[in-house]
Amino acid sequence: MKLLILRFARITRSQFWREAATVHDTATILIIPFVLLFGLIATVVVLVEYYTPPDFRISVEITPYEVGGAILGMLMVLRTNEGLSRWWEARKLWGGIVNQCRNIAVAALAYGPKDPAWRAAIIRWTITFAHACRHSLRGEREIPEIAELVGNTEAENIASAQHMPGHIVLVMARILRVAVDRMGMDRFSFIQIDKERMTLIDHIGGCERILKTPMPRAYSITIRRFIFAFLFLLPFCLIPKLDREHSDLKLDEVDRSRMWLTPLVTMLVAFPLLALDRIGSELQNPFGLKNLNHLDLDGITTTIEQNLLALLEGPAVDYTMIDLIIALDEGPVGLPEPPT
After folding, report:
1. What is the pTM of this model?
2. How many Å apart are CA 191 and CA 194, to the nearest integer?
3. Burial of 56 (0-12, 13-18, 19+ CB in 10 A)
4. Is the dihedral of CA 190, 196, 202, 205 positive or negative?
5. Cα separation, 192 vs 205, whole angstroms
6. What is d(CA 211, CA 94) in angstroms, rounded to the nearest whole number?
7. How far is Cα 120 from Cα 125, in angstroms, rounded to an integer?
8. What Cα–Cα distance (Å) separates residue 153 from each residue in 163, 168, 190, 192, 265?
């Protein structure tokens, strides 16, 4: 037990330092120019204060900044939480797409016609739906993997459709209708599979709601103006001032070297504020490749494709033996009799 605890502690420490030092998938590179800008502003303020006559001071009390900082902190928490909730909701919706695609594939192969062409069609079009959702959410019309699944002609039809996922769901509905009308598929099974198909539209609709409904612009503008005002005025209260016990000393006797730490402290305060603001903004769109920590839709759709093709290309099922077992079953399967 002790060895396990020590090993867990060692792994945790190494992961902490890796994540603390990395710049990949972080907002650091994106906000560095703004951090340096506020450091430059603070430097200008320090220079003005340093060369200003002793009887004219530009520094102010820090009390208003303490109140403003608390309010700004609450606003930043709300913004970040909103971005995280959108990201997590998008991930749950894509988890639903994964599950629905698997459900459709399993039900179609288990209860649908045994015709190989029909089975391949429903599986490939279900996979195509997942790829089309990814491309649709990213605003892409180049769909090479779809051409490999359903052919160039159908891929061109999908790419030219006004709503690619909707076009594919319609094709899937027609494939299921053929199974019922011409291939003897049980209507109860058809209804169950069709419910799964319709749920796919609910999931992609939820993703589109997240994509097309960003955070209210007025809210974003207000927060960023507050951040700018806070960081722009911060150097005025960070400049070292005369202590009360030094009020009777001459100004030239006071050590004013501490004021040169003002730009550094300003940048240290600016870094987390600007990083949280950027993260909250980036998480509003969890689908775009240019956004930080976007969902790995490529990996998700690849998983769907591999899972469904594995079901289609799995070991052959001896339907003759299954039919024989069903025919020999004279009654419902009950619970085993208790031992006497």
Report:
1. 0.77
2. 5
3. exposed
4. negative
5. 21
6. 13
7. 8
8. 17, 14, 28, 30, 61
CA distance 134 to 143: 10
Helical residues (DSSP H) of the chain, grouped into ranges:
2-21, 28-51, 63-111, 116-137, 144-150, 152-160, 164-182, 187-212, 217-238, 262-282, 297-312, 319-328
- Separation CA 214–CA 281 (nearest Å): 9
Residue type, 156: E
Question: What is the amino acid identity at position 211?
Answer: L
Separation between Cα atoms, residue 259 and residue 128, nearest integer Å: 63
First to last CA, the chain: 45
User: C-alpha dihedral over 57, 59, 63, 69, to 10 degrees?
Assistant: 160
Q: Using CA of residue 311, residue 302, residue 195, residue 333, what is the dihedral sign?
A: positive
From first to last of its 340 residues, the chain has per-residue pLDDT tens of 555 555 655 555 566 667 666 666 677 788 899 999 999 998 888 888 777 766 666 666 777 777 888 888 888 888 888 888 999 999 999 999 999 999 999 999 999 898 899 999 999 999 999 999 999 999 998 888 999 999 889 999 999 999 999 999 999 999 999 999 888 888 888 898 999 999 999 999 999 999 998 888 888 888 889 899 889 988 888 775 533 334 444 444 445 667 788 888 899 999 989 988 888 888 888 998 887 788 899 999 999 999 999 998 865 444 444 444 334 444 443 333 444 4
Residue 213 has φ and ψ, to the nearest 5°, of -125, 80
Q: Report the SS3 class of residue 298.
A: helix
Is residue 154 within 8 Å of 325, Cβ to Cβ? Answer: no
Cβ-based burial of 307 (10 A; exposed 0-12, middle 13-18, buried ≥19): middle
- Beta-carbon contacts of 225 under 8 Å, excluding residues fewer than 6 positions away, are none
Tell me the C-alpha distance between 183 and 106, whole Å. 18
> Which among 323, 315, 313, 320 has a CA at the least distance from the CA of 105?
313
